[in-house]
Amino acid sequence: MIARFKKSCRRFCADQDGSGPVEVVLYTTALLVLLGTSVELGIINLKQALLERALAVSVRDVRLNTGASPDYAAIKHRICEEMTASNTCEANMMLEMKVAEPTNFVGLPDIIDCINAEEEPRPSRQFEPGLDNDLMLMRACFKYKPIFPTSRLSASVSMDQNGYAQLVARAMFVQEPR
Q1: Alpha-carbon distance 171 to 162, whole Å?
Q2: Structure-model confidence comparison of residues 77 and 66, the more confident one
Q3: Residues whose CB is less than 8 angstroms from the CB of residue 72 and which lie 6 or more positions away in sequence, other chains included
Q4: Beta-strand (E) ranges in 4-134?
Q5: Is the separation of the CB atoms in 164 and 170 below 8 Å?
Q6: Is residue 127's pLDDT more than 90?
Q7: Which residues neighbour 109 within 8 Å (Cβ) at sequence distance 6 or greater?
Q8: Does residue 100 contact residue 136 with C-beta atoms inside 8 Å?
Q9: Strands across the sheet with 93-100, in order?
Q10: What pairing do the DSSP bridges indicate for beta strands 165-174 and 93-100?
Q11: Most exposed residue of 30, 44, 62, 90, measured as fewest CB within 10 angstroms of its CB?
Q12: pTM here?
């Protein structure tokens, strides 16, 4: 009985029929996971670059727009106008701006105030337009839905209970004299 079992095991291990499709399935799966992760990472980098550029352009407009105090809605609209890759930008963006004292510097809070389109609209936690020559800190938080929310890459970014991931951009500038 044992000899017959050993003989059938040897015959099973020596048989090569059907081994090609197993390799194809394994390699195809690994290739598709790599491709999906590359696409997701590329989109995250694109959105981050667009957010940072849009914030820099908007900060430049605020800084050089002498005689007018910056308005929350106008700055948010300007950032979303520059950030062309998202059609839900205004519903998924939250801005914070505050005056920083250069001699006794205190930055923005570590807890980032962010909102997604599924939450009730609420005012920004902190938005103070500065006066002449004030050092200003600004932070924009943008939430988006990942393409592959169950991937390992999406699991490594901070996501809320509704499945939105967040991107954050920061800027520091001095308000020009009016």
Answers
A1: 28
A2: 77
A3: 95, 124, 127
A4: 93-100
A5: no
A6: no
A7: 125, 126
A8: yes
A9: 93-100, 135-144, 165-174
A10: unpaired
A11: 30
A12: 0.79
